[in-house]
Amino acid sequence: MRRIDVQAGTPVAPQEVRISPGLSTTVFFDARIRPEQLVLEGRERFQRFGVTEDHLVLVPSSTFREGERLRLEVRFHDGAVPERAVMVLVVDSARAERQVELYRQTRSAASYQQEVEELRSGVLRLERQVQQLQQQRSRPSECSRESLVADLGDEDSIAFRAWLPRKVSGDFVVLRATFLRLTTRWAALRLSLAATGANRGWTAAGAELTDARGRRLKSLPPWQAGPVDDGKNPIVILLDEPVFPGEGPGRYTLEMWNEGRKQTLKLEGLQPR
Q1: Which residues contact 265 (CB under 8 A, 6 or more apart)?
Q2: Where along the sequence do coiled-coil regions lie (predicted)?
Q3: Cα 18 from chain centroid?
Q4: 46 has which bridge partners?
Q5: Which among 132, 173, 162 has a CA at the least distance from the CA of 150?
Q6: Which residues contact 124 (CB under 8 A, 6 or more apart)?
Q7: Dihedral angle of Cα 31, 36, 38, 42, to the nearest 10 degrees
Q8: Which residues contact 248 (CB under 8 A, 6 or more apart)?
Q9: What does pTM read for this prediction?
């Protein structure tokens, strides 16, 4: 039996669980989940599927291809943090995992108090940065971009909304997508990614965000502290728009590429959660 621990804090790439056609895999949960909110890619193709508040039973059918990857997401019942857990089921006929236990490590009250203090400090820093940005709004520059994102850090300390893509093209896992409103003119899209295969160490060189009508939104080149490393170096894209996406119901498409467009990432159906 394998144990998987899920805890709040720094995002990490989803754990992989190997499944095999014709063999059952049972996942036990130490906290009650919401069966009606479970999300499983290719659910209709499973030979057997059973779920309760404390366990999940899966028997893949022969229609699954070797190496196929399926996203599994469960939401917990009590509303504590973390509120959900994500795993990736990998079809492997030779190494099926028959039993898996998932344990959730909830956050303490002390950790929340510490986060509040950090957010207060972040707000003060960002207020200063916003004042600088407003002074430079007539001539957006590399300097203003660098000074702004330098203090964004890992905290969403201005008005923000979480975004969710409907489809991801490329060997990437979107750990978190956040839209931040900075001023009446400036906004930022912040992405935490995990890369697989040849995309490990990926660095964004360009980005383009378009709305549902194909209109391209004005933005500065993407910024990141270093190559993509399982969420440790988020990508920040500053948007120069009087009307911000993220405040309306529309869907957007974000495409990013590295130097020479050798490897690309495309998020389709991107919209506020």
Answers
A1: 168, 169, 170, 172, 193, 199, 202, 204, 255, 256, 257
A2: 109-136
A3: 22
A4: 60
A5: 132
A6: none
A7: 150
A8: none
A9: 0.45
Q: Which two tokens stand for residue 13?
A: 């790439």
Q: How many Cα atoms occupy the beta-carbon half-sphere of 75 within 13 Å?
A: 8
Class in CATH terms, 2-105? mainly beta
Q: How far is CA 157 from the centre of its chain?
A: 18
pLDDT, one tens digit per residue, over 35-51 is: 999 999 999 999 999 99
Q: Which residue has the tokens 């948007």?
A: 239
Residue 234 CB neighbours (<10 A)? 22
For residue 16, what pLDDT is reported? 96
User: pLDDT tens digit string along 157-185?
Assistant: 555 677 888 888 887 888 888 887 766 66
Q: Which of 222, 205, 211, 221 is nearest to 253 (CA)?
A: 211
Token reading at 96:
């099926």
Sign of CA dihedral 6, 91, 167, 249: negative
One-letter amino acid at 19 equals I
Report helix angle 109-135 to 142-150, nearest 10. Answer: 160
CATH 2.60.40 domain position(s) in the chain: 2-105
CA distance to 9, 36, 53, 125, per residue, from 40 (Å): 24, 11, 16, 41
